[in-house]
Write a structure and sequence with these properties.
mainly alpha; Rossmann fold; Serine Threonine Protein Phosphatase 5, Tetratricopeptide repeat; DNA Cyclobutane Dipyrimidine Photolyase, subunit A, domain 3; 3 domains; 5-stranded parallel β-sheet; 22 helices; 47% helix
């Protein structure tokens, strides 16, 4: 008999995870499981599956090297789900208790909560200390407010942890937010931007690739070339590489997009943060050491982790399980096939989707203002959109994907997370990228078969939903324009939108 059976999930790959605290190596056993349900509940990008399984196997090896007692079950030898596999292992080892760190997803937590009764073994769920804000702490904050503004939450976190705060409790640089400086388009003759660190697949990764190629060939995305870090050491090297080569200009160009430039100055570290190879505390600590870099880049990056990442997690746990059931605009259209194959004449969509297919990655503006913006103004049903985002990105786990997609992108929550829908016409895309110059559609044309679909879909979206949005103070210019719009113009917008949507 063993004392504790400690279950570690695939996004908890950290030696500092709370369930490993006070472990007795000679009395406790660690269980890690690859199960088919976790592979098949979404059409996961094949690079994401390689990342997870390779990182899990590397972590298990690291635990073993540190003299931990580990049982690791690969997907071709495991039961279908966590519960069945755990049941099998409990019969084998007869543990006195089960310990886990709080799962990151509601569906997994729901499964875990049934274990104690099913197995007749005490189950302890421990706080996930990798995050800055506890789940209950966020709920207390949320319950005390009428509006859940990220900026207010972010400032509170800054003050609590004394991050970018001077001795007087004021923000360093004099401002809390430097967004106004961080909206630049990449200049035409901008120097070549260093790519993220490439990590060559080792034997463990190659074996995962071979195994997945045999069984999951039909899953979305290109499997190779695979270049993600799968160990703590390589993830840290990737962090160091970002700080050295791209952090300086992250701020000014974080909203920029450029054809065939997949990464620009973005860190691509969310992939490692979300599975535990990097800890957000260490990431921020290292970034803050670079005192010679522009404040707009330092603050802009810190805000992504300390502000937005913590905020969306809080929203997720505060409003689940009902959060994903809302559909504020009653959007019902089917997600187009080109979201999977990239076959569309819209150059911006084609570029972002092909990149996603190749890399299991797109940066936040590509996700928000291209693929997300289109889904919003085209009236695509929220669940289908959320399923797509959960499937195609290597950093996508429901706790971070759902609020970002359902709330921020689609405004399907009716404004819990965002203060307005992030709808935009082709003009925004043209302003922040060079996609439009190589597009079959004309970004300057407002109507007709050659016009950029984003243009008439944008206005059609607001015409269709004006009763729900007309009192939003951030949209008064939109509805002022609509007020002065002729009926013929409105009819043309509607007709063009209907014709286009029938073709997809």
């Amino acid at each position: 008999m063993i004392r504790n059976l400690i279950v570690i999930f695939g996004d908890q790959l950290s030696l500092e995870i709370s369930s490993l605290g006070k472990i007795r190596k000679n009395e406790d056993k660690i269980l890690m499981m690859e199960v088919s349900n976790e592979i098949e509940y979404a059409n996961h990008h094949r690079k994401k599956l390689v990342l997870l399984f390779s990182a899990m196997r590397h972590f298990a090896d690291e635990l073993k090297k540190n003299k931990f007692n580990v049982t690791y079950i690969e997907f071709n030898k495991s039961e279908k789900n966590f519960t069945k596999e755990l049941e099998r292992q409990c019969k084998k080892f007869n543990p006195k208790s089960i310990k886990i760190t709080h799962p990151s997803e509601y569906r997994v937590l729901d499964e875990v909560k049934k274990w104690e009764k099913l197995l007749d073994i005490p189950v302890t769920i421990m706080e996930d200390t990798r995050f800055f804000c506890k789940i209950d702490e966020f709920s207390d904050w949320a319950e005390s407010r009428k509006e859940l503004k990220m900026e207010n939450f972010y400032q509170q976190m800054r003050k609590k942890y004394k991050i970018l705060i001077d001795n007087k409790g004021k923000p360093i640089g004099g401002k809390w937010n430097y967004d106004v400086k961080n909206r630049k388009k990449l200049p035409k003759n901008h120097p070549e931007i260093p790519s993220p660190l490439i990590c060559k697949p080792d034997k463990i990764t190659q074996r995962v690739i071979t195994q997945l190629n045999k069984k999951y060939i039909k899953h979305f995305g290109d499997l190779e070339p695979f270049w993600f870090a799968t160990t703590k050491q390589d993830a840290v090297k990737s962090l160091d590489d970002f700080i050295k080569n791209r952090l300086e200009f992250f701020g000014p160009y974080e909203d920029a997009m450029k054809e065939k430039e997949k990464f620009l100055y973005h860190s691509v570290l969310s992939i490692y943060l979300n599975i535990g190879l990097l800890n957000p505390h260490e990431v921020i600590e290292k970034v803050l050491q670079k005192k010679d870099l522009p404040i707009e880049s330092i603050e802009g990056f810190v805000r992504q982790i300390l502000g937005w990442r913590e905020y969306v997690r809080g929203i997720y746990w505060h409003f689940m399980p009902k959060y994903n059931q809302t559909n504020f605009f009653n959007a019902k259209n089917k997600i187009p096939n080109f979201y999977w194959d990239g076959k569309t004449k819209m150059n911006c969509m084609k570029n972002c989707i092909e990149q996603t297919k190749q890399e299991a990655y797109a940066h936040h503006i590509q996700r928000l203002m291209i693929t997300g913006n289109f889904a919003l103004i085209a009236g695509i049903e929220p669940k289908q959109v959320c399923d797509w985002y959960l499937s195609v990105y290597a950093d996508a786990f429901e706790w971070v994907e759902l609020p970002n997609t359902h709330g921020m992108i689609l405004y399907a929550d009716g404004g819990i997370l965002g203060s307005k829908p992030y709808a935009a016409s082709g003009n925004y895309i043209n302003k922040m990228s060079d996609y439009c110059k190589n597009c079959e559609y004309d970004v300057k044309a407002k109507n007709g078969k050659d016009a950029c679909p984003f243009n008439y879909l944008y206005w059609n979206f607001f015409l269709k939903n004006q009763n729900k949005l007309k009192n939003n103070p951030r949209l008064w210019t939109v509805f002022s324009t609509i007020k002065n719009m002729s009926e013929d113009k409105k009819k043309q917008i509607k007709d063009d939108s209907e014709k286009f949507l029938k073709t997809i």
